From TrEMBL:
It is found in: Cytoplasm. Its main location: cytoplasm. Its EC number is 6.1.1.22. This is Asparagine--tRNA ligase. Belongs to the class-II aminoacyl-tRNA synthetase family. It holds the Pfam family tRNA-synt_2. One of its GO terms (biological process) is asparaginyl-tRNA aminoacylation.
Length: 430
């Protein structure tokens, strides 16, 4: 007997197959029992009739608790009324393990309860769709860089110093001294770019953010390309191409998942090049035109980014931020050193920043100066300064936050549902 997954049943019309999964739902009607079998690839209705299965199988179908694991054998039948287009006419139902009372029911549960049961909650259809979408998004981004010939490099998770400011560092005991969980692979990515040309770091990053917002995780994943001899404009073009590729992949490979998530895909289809490119100063003007009180020089918060991102129907690049609100490694605009050659990409529909990046300071002297200015300890950054001592070149890169990108593409409210086991300020379990 062929074991098939639910997504492939169409290839087996009128054939006898075996399905292995869990009971997602169950109902009865006279001499018929309907089992909804979920196998991670989809959900299919199995029709169990008293005269086609053993009495034991029929009795089992009548009482099998939700989330029990089963093996069902039967014939694949076309069924236009089913969302899948097919159902199984069962001739065998075998119990693998009977489930205890399943804590998650069809009724509305609070988010806290669902998060406490995240290890089970990921079995439900929306969460399942989100995890698949995330996988498609991540793979699309990684293959995009791979196909361009970027070398994939891993950055360490345990690091001696800050990359994105000292206020959000996780300190861990490292034998007789301290280490910090990486905030970004960028600095190591720069070293790798000097060795390999164009590289891409993909990995987990950590921020001890004391903010309980819908866009902050304490552990999140970033994809960070870094390119030797590249400057800001071509880096922005690259980010644009990458985003288009990701969105295309999501639309192409996740139509079922986007439907499950009730995502209005029309707005995603608008994400085609060119994306608008505006400066920070222009962004401030837009805020003022919209009646938002804002002082030039301040950083955009979620509210400002929401207003800006609602002003365009595509993702928008914002460049040339005041250097004071950006990280120490940012190169300054030669014409106006108050500005950094920085770029953020704001996703539309109010989602805000999903990418941060820019051109890096390539002068040893300037970089030494910035490290001092930012009050960063110099000694753990000596290796980084070496990159400017031994053949420094203009270079640039960016980081895409996977969870923020998936939140936008899925059209959901909170970033926590885009990762299997989110880490938030108040959540370390399960
Ligand atoms: O803007 P950020 O801080 O930039 C960097 O870390 C650079 N070193 C990247 C680079 O140039 N290689 O972070 C980059 C992105 C943000 O745009 C956002 O998408 C995501 O990482 N991000 C977070 N996502 C979830 N929770 C948080 N607390 C995040 N902080 C940043
Ligand atoms: Mg940023």
């Amino acid at each position: 007997m062929t074991w098939v997954t639910v997504d492939k049943v169409a290839q087996y019309e009128d054939q006898n197959v075996e399905l292995r999964g869990w009971i997602a739902n169950r109902r009865s009607s006279g001499k018929i029992r309907f089992l909804h079998l979920r196998d991670g690839h989809g959900v299919i209705q199995c029709v169990v009739m008293a005269n086609q299965v053993s009495p034991e199988a029929f009795e089992l179908s009548d009482r099998v608790p939700y989330e029990s694991s089963v093996i069902v054998r039967g014939t694949v039948k076309k069924e236009p009324r089913s969302p899948l287009g097919y159902e199984i006419s069962a001739n065998e139902v075998r119990l693998i393990a009977e489930a205890a009372d399943y804590p998650i029911s069809k009724k509305d549960h609070g988010v806290g309860f669902l998060m406490d049961n995240r290890h089970l909650w990921i079995r439900s259809s929306k969460q399942n769709a989100l995890l698949k979408l995330r996988s498609v998004v991540t793979n699309a981004a990684r293959s995009f860089f791979d196909e361009l010939g970027f070398v994939s490099v891993e950055a360490p998770v345990l690091t001696p110093t800050a990359c994105e400011g000292t206020t959000s560092l996780f300190e861990v005991a490292y034998f007789d001294r301290s280490a910090y969980l990486t905030q970004s692979g960028q600095l190591y990515g720069e070293a790798a770019a000097m060795a390999l040309g164009q590289i891409c770091v993909y990995g987990p990053t950590f921020r001890a953010e004391k903010s309980k917002t819908r866009r902050h995780l304490t552990e999140f994943w970033m994809i960070e390309p870094e390119m030797a001899f590249w400057e800001l404009p071509e880096t922005i073009d690259l980010a644009e191409k990458m985003i288009c590729r990701i969105v295309e992949a999501a639309l192409e490979k996740c139509s079922t998942q986007l439907k499950t998530l009730e995502r209005d895909t029309a707005s995603l289809e608008k994400a085609v090049p060119p994306f608008p490119r505006i400066t920070y100063s222009r962004a401030v003007e837009i805020l003022k035109e919209k009646g938002v009180e804002f002082n030039w020089g301040d950083d955009f918060g979620a509210d400002e980014e929401a207003v800006l991102s609602q002003s365009f129907d595509k993702p928008v690049f914002v460049t040339h931020y005041p250097a004071d609100i950006k990280a120490f490694y940012m190169k300054r605009e030669p014409q106006n050193p108050k500005l950094a050659l920085a770029v953020d990409l704001l996703a539309p529909e109010g989602y805000g920043e999903i990418i941060g990046g820019g051109q890096r300071e390539d002068s040893l002297e300037m970089l030494e100066h910035r490290i001092a200015e930012h009050g960063l300890p110099r000694e753990p950054l000596e290796w980084y300064l070496d990159l400017r001592r031994y053949g420094s070149v203009p270079h640039a890169g960016f980081g895409l936050g996977i969870e923020r990108a998936v939140t936008w593409i899925a059209g959901i409210h909170h970033v926590r549902e885009t990762i299997a086991f989110p880490r938030l300020m108040d959540r370390l379990y399960p």
